[in-house]
Specification:
Blueprint lengths: L12 H14 L3 H31 L6 H13 L2
Helix pairs in contact: 1-2
Length: about 80
């Protein structure tokens, strides 16, 4: 089992109210809501950073697509039936 630690932060009254309303609607504790939110945020940020690093790696290997080519392809797809 993973060891848990307590993390605390300050939030606005408005955000605390929203968390409490969500907690009540879902029948979950405030702690559960905050844990889910933090887990999702951290996961998304890691995924974003990995994508950025992949882009840098691709660039370093010369695996790039010219901007004009991307715009042309996007325009073509947008107008295709």
């Amino acid at each position: 089992m993973t060891k848990e630690i307590t993390v605390s932060t300050r939030v606005t009254e408005e955000l605390a109210t929203q968390i409490d309303q969500l907690s009540e609607s879902l029948g979950r504790t405030r702690a559960w809501i905050l844990h889910q939110a933090l887990e999702a945020y951290v996961s998304n940020e890691y995924e974003f950073l990995q994508s950025v690093q992949q882009g840098f790696d691709d660039l370093a290997q010369g695996e790039i697509v010219d901007h004009a080519e991307v715009v042309t392809d996007y325009s073509r797809r947008r107008t295709a039936p």
